[in-house]
Amino acid sequence: MADIKKVVLAYSGGLDTSIILKWLQDEYHCEVVTFTADIGQGEELEPARSKAQTMGVKQIYIDDLREEFVRDFVFPMFRANTLYEGEYLLGTSIARPLIAKRLVEIANETGADAVSHGATGKGNDQVRFELGAYALRPDIRIIAPWREWTLSSRETLLAYAERHQIPIEQKRGKRSPYSMDANLLHISYEGGGLEDPWHEPEEEMWRWSVAAEKAPDRASYIELEFARGDCIAIDGQKMTPALLLAQLNQIGGANGIGRLDLVENRYVGMKSRGCYETPGGTILLKAHRAIESITLDREVAHLKDDLMPRYSSLIYNGYWWSPERLMMQQMIDASQQFVNGVVRLKLYKGSVSVVGRKSLKDSLFDANIATFEDDAGAYNQKDAEGFIKLNALRMRIAARRRQG
Questions:
Q1: Catalytic (active site) residue 374
Q2: Is-catalytic flag, 63?
Q3: From 12, 18, 93, 96, the catalytic residue
Q4: Is 383 a catalytic residue?
Q5: Element (H, E) at 351
Q6: Which residues contact 379 (CB under 8 A, 6 or more apart)?
Q7: Which of 23, 141, 200, 302 fits 114 for a cystine, CB–CB 3.0-4.6 Å?
Q8: Do residues 150 and 194 both lie within one domain?
Q9: Is residue 259 flagged as an active site residue?
């Protein structure tokens, strides 16, 4: 890659990416463009600009992507009721295709030859970033320093920073022992004591939620309104996607909702233990399934459930921009045409319960048919006899064969 003249770096301004910035300048003798994405991580991003300027960067991008993140990535994923391995709401996974997209866009805008990221060679993020970049620009070149350099620990990184006079802000007080990643959908924790799957996380680790036992003793009730499968309002107040998710995070966190302790199977082959807080997403998933329960045809709902594990794996493994994910998304989105209505939820000490659902125009629930009272001829119960016998036919034939 000796002919690389300009690189776009996914830059946070932290230790790793600040060292990567200097390393790219020295090893590749190229111009570096920095890109910092605001996807709701809750940190001040402007310091990244001054750090990049101090290190000689002339083109600096700091982009507010919060609305795009929720509208075009989180909400489409939630239309599928997506869970990876039955539990994980994919908070980190779903952010990576957006960052990859913007990296490629900036590379095109600035005439860059390559993009670079700070993901390690052990994790999933390197796969997600690079698959996304290649899908959107097949000729893009990618520099992954963690797969090239000899810096292998925090101590060697700090020594490198000191040797090259790289401005690294040392935070006062006790440093968190965990590797954390946050956006509007979730915050994740890895490393430290969590590397022992038997180790219970310390209560002070959690940032977004109170412990369930410390949540209010009185239940909270909220109503979520859906239009074509997307949540558009809380208690009748319409909001933009990003503001709505942020509000649900506050409501859920205050009620102890959304904590998860998980050992997951990484795409690169190893098992990894992580903890996650996804309060708003936990509420959204419960509510979305509830509104689908009265508006989706049975076989459509079951087909969606059959496809969901495959869809979730595509996102987890970095195939958001793949033709198969795009094809599945079209089908999922088509299923949401009539997913309209309101869901009432009860939040209490870490739990989310559906206590009501209604859809004035699109409900398939017919009380006249489902009633245990007199249905005035809406349903002929005698029809069930032939239905059962036809469905039992193959089992009766097999039973006769077994019985000789």
A1: no
A2: no
A3: 96
A4: no
A5: strand 351-358
A6: 369
A7: 141
A8: no
A9: no
